[in-house]
Amino acid sequence: MNMGGPDMAPHTPQRSARPGEAVAHRAHLLQISDLQTHFFTFGGTRVIKAVDGVSFTLDEGETLGLVGESGSGKTTTCLSIVGLLPHAARIVGGSVVFEGEDLTRKTQRELRRIRGRRIAVILQDPMASLNPLFTIFRQVAEPAFFHQHLRGRSLRDRVQHLLRAVRIPSPEWRMRDYPHQMSGGMRQRIVGAIALAGGPKLVIADEPTTNLDVTIQAQYLDLLKDIQRETGVALIFVTHNLGIVAKMCDKVAVMYAGKIVEQAPVRELFDDPKHPYTRALLGSVPKLGSKEPLYSITGQPPNPAHLPPGCSFHPRCPEAVPRCTTEEPRDFHLADGSVARCWLLDDVLTRP
Amino acid sequence: MTHPRFTAHNAFLILAVALVLIAAASAVLSLSPPVSAAAKGKIVLAWHSGFASRWLDPQEHDGTATPDNFFTAIHDALIKNQGTQLYDHPALAEKFAVAADAKSATFTLRKGTKFHNGDPVTAQDVKFSYENYRGAKADVFKKKTERVELVDDRTLRFVFKEPFLDFAILFGTANVAAPGWVVPEKYYKQVGPDGFKQKPIGAGPFKLVRHEPGVKVELEAFDGYYRPVHVKQLVMTSVPEAATRVAMLERGEADIIYNVPGELIAKVGKLPGVTLAPVLSGSFFVEFPGFQDPKNPFRDKRVREAVSLAIDRRAMNQAETAGMGKVTGNWINDDVQYAIEWPEFPRNVEKAKQLLREAGYANGFDVEWITPLPPFYSRGERLIAQLREVGIRARLQTMERGIYFQRLQGGLKEFQGTQIILHGTRIAGSWSFWYEGHFKCGGFNSRDRICVKDLDGKFDQYERSINPAERKKLAEEIQRGILENYYIVPVFRHAFVNAIGPKVVAQKWQDVFPTITTGYAYPWEDLKVKDQ
Amino acid sequence: MATIPADPRLARGAAAPGRLQSVIKAVREAPLLAVVILGGLMLVSIFADLIAPHDPTFPVQGANVFDPPFWMEGGRATTPLGTDFQGRDILSRLIHGARVSLIVGLMGTLVAGSIGTAMGIVSGYVGGWVDQIIMRVTDAWLALPAIVFAIFLAAMVGPSMWNIIVILGAVYWTRYARVIRGEVLTLREREFVKLAEIAGASKLRVIKKHILPNVMNTATVLASLTVGVVIIAEASLSFLGVGVPPPQPAWGLMLSEARPTLMAGQWWLTVFPGICILLIVLATQLFGDWLRVRLDPQTRNL
Amino acid sequence: MPQFILRRVVYSIVTLFILSATIFLVVRLTGDPVALMAEASARPEDLDRIRQQWGLDRSWPVQYATFMQNAFKGELGKSFNYRLPVIELYFQRLPNSLTLGLAATLISLLIGVPAGIISAVKVNSGWDNVAKGVALLGLSIPGFWLGLVLILVFSVWLRWLPTSGAGDWRHVIMPAVALGWYFAASMLRLTRSSMLEVLGSEYIKLARLKGLPDVVVIAMHAFKNALIPVFTLAGVNMVVMVNAAVIIEVIFAWPGIGRLLYEGIFQRDFPLVQGVVIMAGFMIVAINLVVDILYAFIDPRIRLTR
Description:
B: alpha+beta; 18 helices; disordered N terminus; C: mainly alpha
């Protein structure tokens, strides 16, 4: 889609070093390459590189965990995939190939046929994601109405089926209710039902459990897993809760200041984190259910409008070397399948 | 309307109808006035002020000059001001006589007069109305009246405790007092004073059809009236904004509009078929509050005279009322008793400057405030511009009307230092009413701002006197005293400019506004609508 | 620096040293039309005495009343926009009127804003019965139709330009008090205020250092939207006869005094001041809207 | 919840009490109705008689106590000028004022809401500016002048509409436009910000994520939610328009409550001014109370912040 065009960007996007990038041998369900999404604020006078050269792949039935602090670009990455960015944001480079089609080159009209139907998104706040003035039936039915063109009885059956699938008791009654008549857990399950309504191949769940209490959270995660098993959808799980990642995901991508700093299969990441930031995150794994993770990292997240030179993490990095302050690290592909961006790895690799 | 409507373009029909009516209904016609059948058309009056419901009840007349418009339509009096007659036009009374000693007055009622509900107007109704009267000057009548005698069913006599020289004037001038305006006793008692104000019944030429308090009074010709009533419907509506009234006239929504502002007079006069009716109204005069104070420059008569010489009265009249007001010497209207003739004041800037020099103000002086009667601020502005030419520097003080009158009541303490008030008022009935309220020490409006001892002494003498010749002499002396000494400085007589639309029959404006005492358009029964 | 709040809005509010710079920058980014109009009017009103060809309060020598503008028949170059019903030069009155109207608009807003902001802060921060009293009075005054209140106040203190300013301030402070109080209530619960309180800062100091800077954005936006309302209110007071007293040349007064002439075809008496009022109010409103978007405070209910 | 409602009701009563005391004092401080109606021929005795008749010879506290006592009984005294109970006068004029208020509200919505939606959906575009300009225009012209210009153009020149007064629907148009346009600006602002807020909300995001057409998202999902606060404000504005449209009612000679108030003020008809202001205040306080309680039902967080 690339609405802005090159002339909209004040300066050409910085090319990230991608030496020895693995070429995809088989077709992935989703392949994101060097995605760059920038915010242009104050009439284009200020550029915030919210997503700056993100690449990852995802296969059917697979679950990717996307972790990082607030403002690290997780949500913008997800919204870039479905092409629903805020006014000020533009995709300025890279591609999002989904089932062989580059979504960045699609018009809004084309994207609309993909959204909700082939890619569904579950938003953070179940309380806020439901329109308070519409019945549950109507909100769950909409994707089926517009995409599958179901009407009348078949639409009602479909909605009841979906609600049953997310374990809403007596759906034939509950679907006439309004959101405020439901508990938080139920609402979140309804949001899940909406996501499944179009029969998607990929579900992006953006911190879906943040506002739920612990038991409900666990139940919900189980539900998602069950559904995934039954339908074979791929899941992108955005969270800053590493406990959930451990439970849900096959692989993990850690984001910091718009970049993926480490990407690894879940076991490798937890057993042997390569990036100092990942290590810091793991050092402060919060309890399941607590809302904000307690980082042991000193300092504040960087201001995205004024990133430090070199590695964005260096001001807070306990292991930073002089090179980190001047030169941006490249991706280092490691033997266990993980990829990380840190000059420390360079030392490790080059050391005889 | 029970009678067929007359149309001018069909003379045969008129003739035929008339013949039929005369032939078939002569009995009815002999009882009800023959003219009522001719009442036709509708006249809409757009007023500048809101209507107070108490204006529909003469019993609580507040003594001002707007309510009488409503009385004269709905009610009628024994004697009243009408046309050039100041107070003695016989109305419900056929004739009246004041005894030579001024200790009694006898009235004979007209035969066959009726109230709108069909009841006859009786001497008892008159007696009730007089004795129950609670409006302006009621205390004067109460104090001086001994009794009201019903001589026979058409004659009654008011007997006074002492000679009551002003009786006829007070009794007959509708804009001063209204004890002579007759209300039906039975109905009045039945609905009570407040109920009466909502649905008044009178013996006037028009009966009330609809009353929206404050906004609209719709009247219909009363066919039992003893004089011919020409207009079938008379609608009085209140339209506070002058520009809107002019738009109404221009569009034919209103037939008579009141109070055309100075800026619009020329334009309205040019509208096709429209006649301007510049009615002379209140006098504007300059007052010097606290001028007797030794520190006040206006203590010096020469300074006061200089103010008079500085004022360009003709220019003021031209600009403010398109020249339709009147520049007169005396501020007391010539239509009230004992008003004296006085030459027009000259304008002479050089002489004014010289007088100021003689008085020791060669470089002029500062006047703290000039306060004009609200809302005539532009007159104050013009006065300031004119005074500046002789070296008197002044600033304008504007006040909201309510505040202005409250401040006047506060007396001198509200007007400290060197100040000028440009006041204006309509003087009705007798000049003495003006003196008592606006000049005399302690008067309800003048309070302690003027206080000229010797004139006040003469006024007391006047009040006590029962000798007409002596009263006249004193009245003239007092007026002369004020004018010669410039205790106040007359400016001009305001023209209250109204406009008459093309639908109303009017050769000249006086045909519609014939009553000189108030300059209003009554007697309403004489208004006529043009034939199509 | 460890306690600097992460919220960029607050960071901006606290960045006092950069304020002048940010003001300059803001003006550069502001809607051009609004800046040109407001800037132009400021200049005109400052240099009114130099620009105006005639005395605005006295008739022009040699001119008649109701002279039309110069391009019409009977118009003359000395009084380019014509004369009014006193023979005064309309252009000069407009130029001086810019000063009066701007002073009334800006000062009226300032008075309203100061009272309202102070009341709102005290009410919201101190709370308790003080809050109760202030809010009940605010409610009562809000329920009193503004124009009624203004008329009576004007009647009480008498009309003069400065009194009108005070009156308009006294009428319009309530809306500030409401909004600012709401803002303060949320601010009061913020960590940095709590921290300052724990650190032992006095109430006055907390208000000065933490509350006031953070409600300034809201107050500024409210102010920019109030200027126009105040100027229109001034005109309305003149219509009711209790506005800026003549012969001072205020636009609202000019418009009100001359309104009958609209029907008489002497359009220049009302159209010129009307356009001036329209421009200034439109400009302040556009500017205020832009400011609101830029500063983005919680000012929905304006 | 009952406690919250009770507290709000008590607040409202206190507010009305302060309002009544304010207006009572203020009218008395600023003029004397008796002095105003007296003309040249009046004498101190006349004035005293009227004062006594109108009960103005009593001390202020006594007058206030009587006034409040009657107010609790639902009586607001009798107008000096009209000799009618103020309540009766008020309800006589109310239909006219309601007609005008409704029509003006409709016009403010017709101008303000579409302009606000355009301005929110097409932020910072040319359309945004045009829509804003139209809606702000009403706010930028003093009502009396706009009214007279309308009369001049539509009554005098074009002869389409009657100049003034109340009658059929044609009489309502001009005053409603002149009055409603002023309020269009606030409608625009609220619609715009409310719309922006709703458009930025999670449920609209979700609606878009469902792949719904833009028309459906804006017209069905956003519109309905965004208009709740707009209609609330329209309701409050209407109460103001019904009770205090002084200038417009004067210009168009509209027989409504605003004019009643106008004449009451300038003639210092104390009971009338007090009564109308209290009625207006009562309506405003009542509508605010209802809105507060309704919102508290919808959103429990409000209860904490007020």
